[in-house]
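Practice problem: predict the structure.
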Amino acid sequence: MTGMGSTWVIDAHAHVWDARALSYPWLGGVPALPSTASAARLLAETAARGYIFVEAGVEAGAEAAEVARVARSEWPGLLGIVAAVDLRAPGLDDTLESLRRTRLVVGVRHNLQSEPAGALAEPGIRRGLEAVAAHGLAFDACVRLSQLDELASLIAAVPSLDVVVDHLGNPDIDGGISSAAGRRWTELIHRLARYPSAHVKVSGLAAGATDETLRAHGPDFVRAAVDAFGATRCMIGSDWPVSTTLGAAASFTAWTALVRSVLSPDEWPRVAAGTAEDFYLAR
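Answer:
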């Protein structure tokens, strides 16, 4: 348990990697992050009941190797894997079929935040997501605030796809919810919440905030997201080790405490574990 009363917690967004075994090109630009982030260290620092591994930006062509390494790792509590895919790849159907047969794979992610403006409207992206839905897998949507409008249109175009928006859609925590960016985020979060297939991860805010602004503004964004989506479509995640190292560097214990402080006793069990179980594991 996490020490948060009697409720067990599922960490719905955790990363592990080992740059000695596989290449993670993006790590070179973030020297504060370790070259090895092991499951053993994750367990020591987060102590959740269960975990969903989310692809960690492995080099192109090594996606299957990352899945294989995680699936066979000594990771007590690993409940599911969100694998990296290229939504535009010609062989996507074969890849998804293989993943669907792979133990623990429950979803996929093509990291959309690295795409240029307008890319989410491309037919190739839509067709890729239609294939993901047809194979019965969930999709993690990691986008920038500026992409939330495009994402909403994409979700509308593929209504059969179960989508979870990572990190509350990456709002501007430092600016606060009353800023122009905060008001825009609120508008778009409510637009996304109109689609029943859309969910949101209460995660990732620490990486884009200072200690002061996370404490001051973080609860407002969490509360607004839960009000928009309802607790049954919100799930908590650590974003370990990114959000526990960069920015405010909030430990998962501190993050769960912040989130729980703005939730009702009925909402907390759903955000802590129930939504992740329904979204990822009931497939």
